[in-house]
Amino acid sequence: MNTSAPLTRLVYVSQATFKPFHTPEGMECHVAEILAISRKNNQQQQLVGALYYGSGNFFQCLEGEKTAVEALYAKLQHDSRHHRLTILHQEPIAQLGFQDWDMKYAMIDQQARDFIKQQGLRKFDPYQFSPKMTHQFLQIMLQNSKDVPATMLQHAIDTPIPEIKPLTPLHYMMMAVLLIIVVFAAIALSSV
Ligand code: FAD
What we know:
- The structure is a single chain.
- The protein is α+β, with helices and mostly antiparallel strands.
- Helix content is 43%, strand content 21%.
- It is built from six helices and five strands, in the order βαββαββαααα.
- The protein has helices at 29-45, 66-76, 109-118, 131-143, 150-158, 169-190, and strands at 7-16, 48-54, 57-65, 82-93, 104-105.
- Strands 4-1-3-2-5 form a five-stranded mixed sheet, sandwiched between helices.
- The protein is elongated.
- It starts with 6 loop residues before the first strand and ends with a helix.
- The structure holds flavin-adenine dinucleotide.
- Flavin-adenine dinucleotide (FAD) binds at residues 14, 34, 37-38, 41-42, 49, 58, 60, 72, 75-76, 78-82, 103.
- The site of flavin-adenine dinucleotide (FAD) has 18 residues, from helix 1, strand 3 and helix 2.
């Protein structure tokens, strides 16, 4: 990496737009795909960072040359797998914190749960994070050295995500008819 170029750390949060689908091992399949493409691209762009996904929200830290980080953040805003992107923190850095990770996936569910409890939150909602909480959560991600096992990641990537078809007017009609039958049956039974 050209060390003379200014380095930056950008932390943002976003909300997933997909319906979660986990493998039996517990890896969310959309996240596995995102992780795989991120690792490949970030290596090329000399970007590093970490990602956490919980309760339908993403918390991501991106580090690298300022222009590359900002170009990626601009690209991320067009990815329909998430929305409501909000920057929680950005600072110039002298050295990378996640230097060994093209994109670390923070396997910190228990630590995240403990942290949420300590902070008095009901679920992982990083939109509620104060600057201090953002810093503390980042430290948890930095200190954790556990990565997703390669087999678990590959299994999640290979698992076909079932297509969820929206309900049609016919479905609603059938449900209404069923409901009417149930109501009539209940009335008939109660009058016997
Ligand atoms: P293409 O695959 O050609 O993408 C073209 C467009 O389609 C882009 O706008 C892309 O965002 C969108 N797109 C691609 N695949 C899908 C899909 N399955 N569903 C919906 N839209 C899609 N990429 C990185 O390189 N580094 C990261 O650190 C990184 N972190 C991410 C974190 C999150 C929470 C999310 C949701 C995505 C992240 N991505 C990351 C993925 C990134 O948004 C792009 O999809 C990826 O970089 C490939 O984009 P592309 O334009 O090169 O390629």
